[in-house]
Amino acid sequence: MAVRYWFGSVLVLAGLGLLADQMFPALEVGVWLGRLWPLAIILLGVLLLLTKSSSWIGAMIILVFGAILQIAALGFLSENIWGLLWPSFLILLGVLVIVRLGRPGVVGGKTEDAINLFTAFSGYETRPQSANFRGGSATVAFGGTDIDLRDAKLAKEGAFLELTAAFGGMDIIIPKDWAVDINGLPLFGGWSNKTSPTPVAGSPVLTIRCLAMFGAIEIKN
Predict the structure, then answer these.
(1) DSSP codes, 110-129
(2) Most exposed of 17, 31, 92, 206 (fewest Cβ within 10 Å)?
(3) pLDDT, tens only, 117-149
(4) What is the DSSP string of 140-208?
(5) pLDDT tens, 11-51?
(6) Domain extents in the chain
């Protein structure tokens, strides 16, 4: 909801600025818009950092992307912008890998209550059979991961599952009787919710947060 307000506000302000530039050319509003437009990307990153429904690593990527564009728009960079963006992206992806692998938890198995998966340049399939599933995290880079939760049961307090796909794909299968709350951030990628849940009233909720960077995440029953 907050991101929608941000996007609408940016469009309104940009329109007002261009209108003012036509009516009052001496103000040079168009010139300032040309120099400061990356601030909209930076503000989006800040907003996503403050939004629980978003992944912090995705917000940081947007912040770095906006900051580099802003520095370039102000004329402080003479180098190729893309030559700076790609190394920055790789650094953030490396931080993501370190953070994911450094999190406390148990590597996904058939009887564990939480999963903590990292897959790179390969494929991985898991079907947890936990009677008290609490969620966890799964990250795939240049590979594929399939997580089948049909044999698991949610913890009474619910579960939180964080998914990240970078240059890879991820398929998540969840039971129809689970209540789900799914949200995410696509960065040159996409995620899709193909579930049609029929949960029992008062049942615990599986909260899923997705980040798709040049990759795809599909959640289905």
Answers:
(1) TT-SEEEEEEESSEEEE---
(2) 31
(3) 888 788 889 999 899 999 988 888 888 999 999
(4) EESSEEEEE-TT--B-TT-EEEEEEEESSEEEEE--TTSEEEEEEEEESSEEEEE----PPTT--EEEE
(5) 777 777 777 777 777 767 777 777 788 888 788 778 777 76
(6) 2-100, 105-220
Identify whether the C-beta of residue 63 lies closer than 8 Å to the C-beta of residue 42: yes
For 193-205, how does the pLDDT look when each residue is reduced to its tens digit (9 = 90+)?
999 888 777 789 9
Q: Coil, helix or strand for 135?
A: strand
Q: Residue 194: count other Cβ atoms within 10 Å of its Cβ.
A: 9
Counting Cβ atoms within 10 Å, is residue 200 exposed (0-12), middle (13-18) or buried (19+)? exposed
27 DSSP assignment: G
The pTM for the full model equals 0.65
Name the nearest CA neighbour of 106 among 122, 130, 125, 123. Answer: 130
- The strand pair at 179-187 and 114-120 is best described as unpaired
The count of other CB atoms within 10 Å of the CB of residue 22 is 9
Mean pLDDT rounded to a whole number for the chain:
79
Q: What is the CA radius of gyration of the chain?
A: 21
**Distant-in-sequence, close-in-space partners of 151: CB < 8 Å, separation ≥ 6:** 127, 128, 129
The 3-state secondary structure of 44-69 reads HHHHHHCCCCCCHHHHHHHHHHHHHH
Best CA proximity match to 169, nearest among 216, 109, 114: 216
